[in-house]
Design brief:
By secondary structure, the chain is of the alpha+beta class. The protein is built from 22 helices and 12 strands. Helix 15 packs antiparallel against helix 16 and helix 18 runs antiparallel to helix 19.
């Protein structure tokens, strides 16, 4: 028996020695000889990765499905997610991946005494967490970024906790930037401001304005005092030249404007994106000069013609004449052909007889849009057939609906920038605050400045004087909130802030289309499968705090895109 016990102990000790040896070898084998030791990571390289990834992700929201949700654009192909909020579970891995890199940048900044980089890290941490909670609702915050230490299954903090943490981090960043210390800064790695610490301070305070206003329905006293404090200090973005933006390099698809046609053989991705009629109606009502900066006139325009012997002519005309094609006439062109022919000075039309159309029961109720700029109605049942398109489907574009302007065909350009926050937005925030009676100056002055800066952004600032004087645009104290909301929503083109503002205010009055899965516009993304599968108890707890008021809960569960998160619960908004 003694010999057996001795043999057992010997085998255990030998096993432990072998195990430790294997662990040592595994540690050596798992060290990437080509990688960078986190303990020696360069904060400048980390900064460039965080800035580019964040700006790209943010633009992809505002130019992607959120543009459809807030009715800036619609798609006439592969349209269900874009037009009618047909969203399944959506993971946030990319955003938390950016936070991990950002957290390392902050740690390295502390190690090296780089206060500038720490300030940048706090701003980007705030911006990224704000997007996460704005998109999903409650989310891991105080226990996030601790998977390598002590928390594998982080709890979801309330939106209230997250927003207040964001505000404190932005205040801390402002204090760091106020010192003027730029030790260790590399201008070339700062894709937003090229190392200009003053502009970073303006960015931080402009974000404070944004998030204070986000809280204005839930924590009005905090919001008011915060906005008044930022306004009095005066360090916020005041001119479009100081906007927080990132330009695209245009070398590879990863650093180019999304869905551009220059880097692909099939331009169908670009062609699917069309203006939404909701936005087009607002723009045309005031002859807004931004209209033709953003949208291209229809390739073939409808013309009312009472001499026509049929209700709707099936053929197009070039400069007023039919175009022979075999034994018949031309009905359409491919997109590339239209672009080339119109550039050569040709004009294309198609005719209909309004009298005969009205007399035909099958056609009488259908509207033919004869405008030069035509959009697709929100949530249309057959968006590819809108405005009597003769070429439904994915192959040939709709010649009777506008495309986006030609600038969006390019991989890069002076107007193609990811815009994180702008002077226009800050002035709209101040205009709303002033209209609420807060001590931030004149609502009219801020409103006018917001529109001026938006026009400047799009290269048409010289049209400001004529535009601001137009009925419906000129400031009216009696309708100030509606005007501010409408113009801010228009100015948020390619930016998801229009969605977040609409949820808070219910303005403009967006209506879900007939093909929508619910009778209301969606207000959040459902939590993703990664969290559902691996952090299920905390997901269930967060879902239990959502408020469902529509049929979606019974149909698809409580974790749906119409369930209201804390930020809009009890406000009666947006619906």
């Amino acid at each position: 028996m003694k010999n057996f016990k001795f043999l057992y102990k010997f085998m255990m000790i030998a096993g432990l020695i072998v195990m430790n040896s294997c662990v040592d070898e595994l540690v050596e084998m798992n060290k990437n000889p080509n990688g960078i030791d986190p303990a020696n990571a360069n904060p400048n390289l980390l900064m460039s990765s965080v800035l580019s990834g964040t700006a790209t992700s943010y633009l992809n929201l505002g130019y992607g499905n959120i543009a459809g949700t807030i009715q800036h654009t619609q798609k006439d192909g592969w349209w269900s997610s874009h037009n009618v909020y047909d969203w399944g579970p959506s993971d946030w891995n990319g955003w938390y991946g950016l936070l991990r890199s950002n957290e390392l940048m902050i740690r390295r900044a502390d190690d090296l005494g780089y206060s500038f980089h720490k300030g940048v890290g706090l701003v980007m941490k705030s911006f990224i967490y704000a997007n996460i909670t704005d998109i999903w609702g409650d989310a891991p915050y105080t226990e996030a970024m601790r998977g390598n230490s002590d928390v594998l299954f982080p709890r979801f903090d309330s939106q209230e906790v997250i927003y207040q943490g964001i505000i404190e981090d932005l205040k801390a960043a402002d204090a760091l930037f106020a010192t003027g210390n730029t030790l260790g800064m590399s201008n070339t790695n700062d894709f937003y401001f090229q190392g200009n610490i003053t502009r970073w301070r303006q960015f931080a305070n402009s974000l404070l304005l944004r998030y204070y206003m986000r809280l204005s329905e839930k924590l009005p006293q905090l919001a008011r005092s915060g906005i008044e404090s930022v306004y009095q200090a005066g360090f916020y973005i005041k001119t479009n030249a100081d906007d927080a933006t990132m330009e695209y390099l245009g070398n590879l698809s990863a650093d180019s404007w999304p869905e551009n046609t220059a880097q692909v053989t099939d331009a169908s991705g670009f062609r699917r994106i069309k203006p939404c009629q909701t936005l087009v109606d607002k723009l045309l009502a005031t002859d807004d000069p931004r209209t033709k900066v953003w949208f291209r006139p229809v390739h073939c325009r409808w013309v009312a013609d009472e001499t026509l012997t049929v209700a709707i002519d099936p053929f197009i005309r070039e400069n007023g004449q039919y175009m022979p094609l075999g034994n018949s006439f031309r009905r359409s062109f491919l997109d590339a052909e239209y672009i080339q022919r119109i550039a050569a000075g040709n004009v294309y039309t198609r005719h209909f007889n309004p009298i005969l159309k009205a007399a035909d029961p099958a056609l009488a109720g259908a509207i033919i849009d004869t405008n030069e700029i035509v959009g697709i109605p929100a949530g249309a049942v057959t968006p590819d057939g809108h405005n009597f398109n003769p070429t439904v489907g994915q192959i040939i574009e709709n010649q009777h609906v506008s495309q986006l302007a030609d600038i969006y065909r390019q991989p890069r350009g002076p107007l193609l920038r990811a815009r994180l926050i702008s002077a226009s937005e800050t002035f709209f925030i101040l205009a709303e605050a002033a209209a609420k009676g807060w001590n931030v100056g004149s609502a009219e002055a801020h409103y006018n400045a917001a529109i001026q800066q938006s026009l400047n952004t799009w290269g048409i600032g010289n049209q400001y004087a004529a535009f601001i004087a137009k009925p419906g645009v000129a400031f009216n104290a009696a309708t100030a909130m509606q005007q501010i909301a409408d113009q801010k929503w228009i100015a948020s083109w390619t930016n998801p802030e229009g969605w977040f503002d609409w949820r808070r205010t219910g303005l403009p009055n967006l209506q879900a289309g007939p093909a929508s899965l619910e009778l209301q516009v969606a207000v959040r993304f459902p939590y993703g499968n990664n969290e559902i599968n691996f952090n299920n108890q905390n997901v269930l707890s967060a879902v239990s705090r959502l408020v469902n008021t529509l049929d979606a809960e019974a149909r698809v569960g409580a974790n749906n895109q119409w369930a209201k998160p804390w930020i809009i619960q009890g406000t009666g908004k947006p619906w």
